C-alpha cells in the first residue's frame, strides 16, 4: 500500500538526510545521524452512548477519512492527556454532552489513511452514560448523529473496521 510509512517517509526527521531506511515492521534508522524512529500506534477513544430506548448513538463523519460514514464519537488522545480526559473532552467538543459514567470495554487496533499516510491507532472503547440529552449540539468533526439498535444498524455504513468490532463487542455479537 502506497500510504504505509515505509512508502511515504523518505527523509530523517532529525537531520533531513535521505539515508533514512526502513528497518522492518516498526522502525526506521538514519545512516547519517543514527536517529532511530519508531512507528507507534496513537491512542484514540471511542464512546458507546445509549439513549433511554437502548439505541446506540452514532456520528456521521464531516471530514475524511470516511467522510459521510458512521462512527462512534471520540478522537485522539492528546500528548500528556489521559484516555479518560480525552473521552470527556471529545464528547464535550463533538456533542456538548457531559459524561457522568464511563466504563472501559477494551482496546481495538485500527489503521486509516489521512493525508496520504497510514495512521495506526489503538482505539480505547468506553461505555458511557451522559448527564442528559437536552444540551446535545453537533460540533467539531461530525455533521450529524443517528441512533441505531441491533436490528437496524447498517454495518456497511460504518467506516472503520475497529468501530464495527467495538460495537459488536458492546452488543456481545
From TrEMBL:
Keywords: Hydrolase, Magnesium, Metal-binding
A Pfam family: NUDIX
Nudix hydrolase domain span: 40-173
Domain of life of the source: Bacteria
A GO-annotated cellular component: cytosol
GO molecular function, one term: NADH pyrophosphatase activity
Cofactor(s) named in the record: Mg(2+)
Entry protein name: NADH pyrophosphatase
Amino acid at each position: 500500500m502506497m500510504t504505509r510509512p515505509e512508502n511515504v517517509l523518505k527523509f530523517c526527521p532529525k537531520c533531513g538526510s535521505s539515508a533514512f531506511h526502513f528497518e522492518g515492521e516498526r522502525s526506521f534508522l538514519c545512516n547519517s545521524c543514527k536517529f532511530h524512529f519508531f512507528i507507534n500506534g496513537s491512542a484514540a477513544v471511542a464512546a458507546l452512548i445509549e439513549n433511554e430506548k437502548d439505541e446506540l448513538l452514532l456520528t456521521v463523519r464531516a471530514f475524511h477519512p470516511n467522510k459521510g460514514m458512521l462512527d462512534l464519537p471520540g478522537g485522539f488522545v492528546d500528548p500528556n492527556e489521559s484516555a479518560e480526559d480525552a473521552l470527556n473532552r471529545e464528547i464535550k467538543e463533538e456533542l456538548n454532552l457531559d459524561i457522568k459514567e464511563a466504563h472501559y470495554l477494551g482496546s481495538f487496533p485500527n489503521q486509516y489513511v489521512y493525508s496520504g499516510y497510514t495512521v495506526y491507532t489503538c482505539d480505547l472503547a468506553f461505555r458511557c452514560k451522559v448527564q442528559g440529552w437536552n444540551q446535545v449540539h453537533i460540533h467539531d468533526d461530525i455533521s450529524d448523529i443517528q441512533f441505531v439498535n441491533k436490528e437496524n444498524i447498517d454495518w456497511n455504513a460504518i467506516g472503520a473496521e475497529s468501530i464495527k468490532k467495538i460495537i459488536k463487542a458492546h452488543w456481545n455479537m
